[in-house]
């Protein structure tokens, strides 16, 4: 929440976009870290591990809940830009912080859809189809990726709030008409999305390369090339762009629309 900026008229859309751009780096590096391990499908299969406490889910489900329980105790999910994937979670051991009243009351949480997309499509595409037994490392990287993706997607609420404040009459009319399609069209800026995808491809190219001390780039083949040439060896560029095109952007829009559909409830 420290990256959010609030002024007298509401959220700063420019600063929110700066935050989203920084989150791109976190997501890309997270994917690169996960890609160094195999898919390891066993960790996602229920019943593949025996747990002493009788838990009957998958290793990944167990690990995810345990990590979120620790984070909940230090009030991670008290922040309005953080959303858990699991329940129930313990209460924080730290006193609550006084966050500014930025968002209106809502119950929008898109994490179930994100989790399904990540496990069913993203990881199998990102990783080699093998089992290298790095189960803990794989699950740790999965959770880091999911947390960053969730935060990025749910930032859509702040974007939607900022856009609503900029045009309350236009959005209110569409909300009362229950016209989700029109709301999405009003929210969408195709030129911004196009710049985003170009930026992502460039970042993935740069971050996915190994650069030697003399400035040469090690390609995926192990050969070297001048900086900027060759293919990155750590991550597939198309995968990063596809991740945003197929999942991040559509899920963010869904968050934005559903938040706005609840936006007037707290005013009535």
Automatic annotation (TrEMBL):
Residues 137-256 form the Chorismate mutase domain. It catalyses: chorismate = prephenate. GO terms for cellular component: cytoplasm. The keyword Cytoplasm applies. This is Chorismate mutase. PANTHER family: CHORISMATE MUTASE. GO terms for biological process: chorismate metabolic process; L-phenylalanine biosynthetic process; tyrosine biosynthetic process. Pathway: Metabolic intermediate biosynthesis; prephenate biosynthesis; prephenate from chorismate: step 1/1. Pfam families: CM_2 (PF01817). It is found in: Cytoplasm. Keywords: Amino-acid biosynthesis, Aromatic amino acid biosynthesis, Cytoplasm, Isomerase, Phenylalanine biosynthesis, Tyrosine biosynthesis. It is an enzyme of class 5 (isomerase). Its EC number is 5.4.99.5. One of its GO terms (molecular function) is chorismate mutase activity. Homodimer.
């Amino acid at each position: 929440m420290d990256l959010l900026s609030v002024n007298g008229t509401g959220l700063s859309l420019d600063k929110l976009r700066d935050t989203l751009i920084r989150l791109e780096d976190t997501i890309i590096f997270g994917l690169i870290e996960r890609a160094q391990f195999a898919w390891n499908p066993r960790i996602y299969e229920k019943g593949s591990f025996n747990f002493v406490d009788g838990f009957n889910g998958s290793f990944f489900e167990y690990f995810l809940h345990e990590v979120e329980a620790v984070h909940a105790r230090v009030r991670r999910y008290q922040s309005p830009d953080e959303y858990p994937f699991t329940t129930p979670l313990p209460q924080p051991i730290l006193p609550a912080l006084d966050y500014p009243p930025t968002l209106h009351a809502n119950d929008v949480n898109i994490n179930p859809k994100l989790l399904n997309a990540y496990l069913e499509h993203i990881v199998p595409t990102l990783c080699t189809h093998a089992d290298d037994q790095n189960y803990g490392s794989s699950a740790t990287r999965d959770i880091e990726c999911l947390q960053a993706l969730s935060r990025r997607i749910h930032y859509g609420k702040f974007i939607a709030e900022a856009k609503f404040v900029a045009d309350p009459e236009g959005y209110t009319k569409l909300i009362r008409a229950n016209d989700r399609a029109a709301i999405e069209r009003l929210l969408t800026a195709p030129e911004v999305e196009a710049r985003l995808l170009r930026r992502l491809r460039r970042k993935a190219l740069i971050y996915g390369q190994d650069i030697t001390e003399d400035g040469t780039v090690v390609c995926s083949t192990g050969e070297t090339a001048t900086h900027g040439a060759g293919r990155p060896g750590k991550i597939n560029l198309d995968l990063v762009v596809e991740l945003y095109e197929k999942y991040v952007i559509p899920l963010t829009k869904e968050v934005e629309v559903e938040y706005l559909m609840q936006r007037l409830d707290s005013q009535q």
